[in-house]
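The record is passed on directly below:
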Amino acid sequence: MTIPLPLPADALRRRCDPSSWPFATTADLPDLDDVIGQPRAVEAIRFGIGIHHKGYNIFALGPPGVGKHSLLTHVFEQQAVARPAAADLCYVHNFAQPHRPRALLLPPGTAVRLRDDLRRLIDDARALLAAAFESEDYRTRREALADEVKAEQERALSELQERAQPHGLALARSEDGLAIVPIRDGEIIPPEEFHKLPEEEQRRLEEVMEALQEDLEKILYQAPRWERELRERERALGREVAAHTVSPLFEELQRAYAPLANVLDYLGAVRNDIIENFRDLLPAEPAPATDEDDASPALRPDAPIARRYQVNILVDNSAAHGAPVIYEDNPTYANLVGRVEHIAQMGALVTDFTLIKPGALHRANGGYLILDARKLLQQPFAWEGLKRALQSRQIRIETPDQMTTLVSTVTLEPEPIPLDVKVAITGDRDLHYLLADADPDFSELFKVFADFSAEMDRDPQTELLYAQLIATHARREGLRPLDRAAVARVIEHGARLAEDAAKLTAQVSVILDLLREADYWARQAGHDVIVADDVQRALDAQTQRADRLQQQMREEIVRDIVHLDTAGARVGQVNALSVIQVGNYSFGHPSRITANVWLGKGEVVDIEREVELAGPIHSKGVLILSSFLGARYAQDRPLSLSASLVFEQSYSNVEGDSASSAELYALLSALSGAPIRQALAVTGAVDQHGRVLTVGGVNQKIEGFFDLCQARGLTGEQGVLIPAANVVNLMVRPDVVAAVAAGQFHIYPITTIDEGIEVLTGIPAGERGPDGQYPEGSINARVAARLAEMAEKHEQQRSSEEDEDVD
């Protein structure tokens, strides 16, 4: 077997060569108009925009910082420019059903014009109506109506008077009103004189008086009817005067809005309401008549314009150029579908159509709406409200708390507005999969998903586009330009973030943060241009702000508070590497794994699992070790060992299988008795056939062990074993590369467990020969011999127990 050689320094970090780039600084590069690295997502978004069938809304999924929102906004704005501006939206009073305000959809800019025209019309109507009802002609016609009613009353009373005179009776007015009384010589007979009359004369007069009194009461009973008729005739006169006064104003306005049938219908309703309720536009209500000859209205100059003739504009697109593109940062239910506000009045909350407020769906109607999925789902009723609007293709303003509130309110039922909008929601993949699985409506309403990648391919063309991207963001942020070396350093860091030397991160937000911080350090250093040292200083500062825990854990090892060897050799002990995540910062940390073996029944005990500190993936890795041992060494005899594995001085949860190869090395060392070099650390998963598999965080793991070795002093013997498949992921720090180049540190690419154990022990692993045996003295031969010995002892013990049972 060929022992793998340490990797050369140039294999540890793929550098950028800026010498061929056609610019000196990013100031020489034009802005990047297109999006790079997301062809799949761009195609999906353009498809979602282009298809106009119901349900083809967009869910943009991917990790944070990859530019989902920026890309959606960019593509939507490109499409919006070519589309016509959306309609104006407004609500007006519904004169037939005041609790159901009417919605008007108008051409862009029409709503403001209609509001202003109607306001001027009402002002003009007020002035003209006031003049008309103060005119002599109106007074004369109104007085004539009163005179007619008065004449009719007097005619009836005159007829009664004429009927009473032949009987010596007359109609007289007293404190109690009108009455029939006896008279003599034109004077009323007093009661004492009346009783002196002959009884027959008294009875005659009383009978006639009683009959005439009944007729008088009938006449007086008709007086309210005459008053009602007078008021109705006065109202009819008022409507006639109002119609004659305001009709010319409406005729002019109706000609201006002739192409808009909904506006003409509304103007007709306004005209009819003004004619019917003309007194609402007068400066004051008519005052009671001061005498029978004067019933003209008294006017009050401070009467307000009637609210019901206002136009409540929800959306004004008069200044819009193309379709709207709206992002709602706080997608509450009310901010999405609108709301009806209330005001306190007489101890209750009341409202009218002027208190209707728009939501994001109103503002985006006819265009595009962008929402954040997590924010949307955190708001009560918001997700259901959005789904209802998309399903019905209507914006219906409803108040969810009406059913639960204990406050007495007067509310409205605004007329629904037709909805034509393309909605795009951004979120992570887990949220998308959760919605698709838990909500059957989701897949019907969001048929297009734009999947954003966290990285992009790295090649010379992409690197140049990446440089252009850096130049674009630097200009937009008002940052200093970067020279070519600084751009190269940013690109190298982008590859490290992607954890692949052949990829670049698509998380532009992280790169933008680096540019801002590099600009700060360039300013501190007095540089006009950001240089590579400024970028490196920004990276070092980011690490320094976040690595307190890393330094503390490394210090504990250096001071032997936590025991971990980086020199010498130990049987059944190996240094494993893991990654610890602290917020957005991750670092590699070495741990000591030990293994013990003894005679048993083929069980490998994971102490971490037994005390419930191990996750399922780690436990799976340990079970794979048992499978590997059985398949390789127990083909013709039972596996008669028991073994225990533990992360020494570890008091937190352990998850992942990246330590499974290290655990297997510890087991093989314990079985073979071959000591493992403690100057080496190991990472890598393993399968049942002994192949070493890739792991994550390989750069941080290498650097974590390097930092510990450097703190104790580099000897030239230290190094790390990594899976060979992880070589493509290497983008280690420049100081690690320098140490490898100087022969002070080594990184070994390992393909199989046999290669790894040979590097760790310096003893050949040994390959099985044609006879099925391993070379004498090899690791595999030692392990096989030890297991055979255990199996034999186990068999002897079992036979002895059986003999004892027979006796």
In short: Residues 223-256 form the longest helix (34 residues).
